[in-house]
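Journal club prep, notes for RB
We'll compare a predicted complex against what the paper describes. Inputs for the iron/sulfur cluster case:
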Amino acid sequence: MMYEFRVSEMAEEFGVHRNTIRNWINSGTLAAKEGPGRKYLMKFEDYQLLCEKFGRQAHIKPSSYVDPDKVRKLEEDAHRPEPMVLGFTEKTICADTSWADTCLTCGTCASACPIAGVDGLDPRKIVRMAVLGLEDELKDTNWPWKCTMCAKCENACPAGVEIMALMRRLRGLRDRDLVPGPIHKGVVTCLERGNNLGIPKDDFVFLCEELGEELEEEGLEGFKTPVDVVGAKVLVTVNSKEPFAEPDDMKYWWRIFHAAGESWTISSENWEGVNWGLFSGDDESMKTVVGRIVDNMRRLKCEVLLLPE
Ligand code: SF4
Ligand code: SF4
């Protein structure tokens, strides 16, 4: 006997996210195959085993019984050559082409998007275009750059489509010299000089020491800015706009650390805590910047990392 189910039904039954059920099916953990419509089929014994694993009673609905002839026909159909789908090319940027079935074109994402309609931006349209392999067209639009990456669309999506990952991949497709605004320049500056605004090491260390002296004069007895203190518990990274334009803002943090008796330090190099590769879709640069912070953690033997952003 075969058991027929929808992903959403099984997710609700076992109290897991529907993506979890899809992952189980894709990985073979759940021995199910595609059935009619958006349903799946699995052996009833396998369904019972799953129930046992979750410590619950098998739940059988009349619609769960499937005619064996129907199953045979489905298996025959499964072995027929796939029809060619117009426009669905190997260029698709969706790593998981099942998105073509996953997206319901319900438009919930567009309803949730705070900037839907701005310059024609519509997350549902973007997902459809991506599924159809229209990446060149998407790459040339400004939609991925207008998107604030707030994730409201993704959170609202009933099908679990990873719209945020799609937006970032689209950003990453742009030639770097066509990335709008200063964010790619910031990434390059950070890679070359250790922070987004290119503040030299000596200037940064001088500023930190000077702010420390000011704090001591303001009543923090014995305060000295802890730069490159090996063995400090917390490594504090810095948003470069603070030393550049708002240095006094750093003092608020430092006052709290001092009052709490915290063991903390700042690195004199690669101290930038804002990773603009995240915004520009540049995964390689992002990894490099993260790797430098990890190196600082190891070099200074810190246990805890504090990122300002
Ligand atoms: S909310 Fe999800 S399923 Fe609905 S149109 Fe948007 S991406 Fe597709
Ligand atoms: S992440 Fe982008 S597309 Fe999604 S809701 Fe936010 S602004 Fe709209």
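Talking point for the session: Residues 112-113, 115, 123, 147-153, 163 surround iron/sulfur cluster (ligand 2) (CB under 6 Å).
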